[in-house]
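Title: Request for sanity check on Phosphate-binding protein prediction

Description:
We are preparing a figure and want to confirm that the structure record we downloaded matches what your pipeline produces today. Could someone re-run it with the sequence below and paste the raw structure tokens into this thread? We only need the token string, no images.
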Amino acid sequence: MKNWKFVMASTILGSSVLLGACGGNTAQQGSSGSSGEGNSESETAQLEGKVSGDGSSTVAPIMEGIVEEYAGAQPNVQVTVGVSGTGGGFEKFIQGETDFSNASRPIKEEEAKSLEDAGIDYTEFLLAYDGLSVVVSKENDWVEDLTIEDLKKLWVEDGTTKKWSDINPEWPEENVVFYAPGTDSGTFDYFNEVVLEEEDLVSSATLSEDDNVLVQGIQADPNAIGFFGYAYYQANQDTLKVVKINGVEPTNETIESGEYSPLSRPLFTYANNKAATEEEQVYNFLEYTLENAGEMAEAVGYVALPQEEYDKGKADLEALKQ
């Protein structure tokens, strides 16, 4: 398997990027480090066709790695995955435009109802754990730790101009500059639920579905603060400083244990059952994803699930064919 942390550090995915896997003649040798090697029929039965997905930019680093590794196992299967955000991905999934939809939050009741109305049956698969990370510039030498209450005071729109000194009078009387994922993002939804408690986000925030825009904005401004998935902090930790929340720093250990609460969360992909059962290449790609998601999650900076969770996902996938 490639050094995916190096790849993440050098080329973080943007929301306008399409992840593609379409192998050539030389790709049949496969990817020498693929963790799925020898685990299924995916290395022996050569398939053809297309697989399409969309969704969360948080899940994108995991899926980008899997797509590229899969090209070695199945060079004649073209996999394209958009990264328009969790909500945007579900919109395409509901329209029947995609075979699977990546999400950084569980599906909403209204989205599930829309799928039911459209006659689309689906299955939810867990991929990894993430710790939503609050970050500031390395030049910020005053913020080390914030409470959830501090975050809410900063991020909720209340008609005032927010200053760092509002949180701690010893901090600078400088306006806080906010960067946040766009409203189609599952990360936005999660932060809205657990921090803002459904109140409005501060109106001065720069919003983007492209996490790389957020990274660059925060890097450049000592008064900036923002949040996104743990892997994006990991890939940029030389130029960003992560903020402890309630005294706990996000790490693999604190995310997996749940100590980094309430900002630890699972990451998902949702599969169209009909596509998975009727199109062999879709089933094969989903199987390959579940076989490799844990190792790829760790490689790009997230936290793998216990093996029994991946085994359960594979059993759920296999049950679709019964």
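Thanks, this matches our download. The chain has twelve helices and 13 strands.
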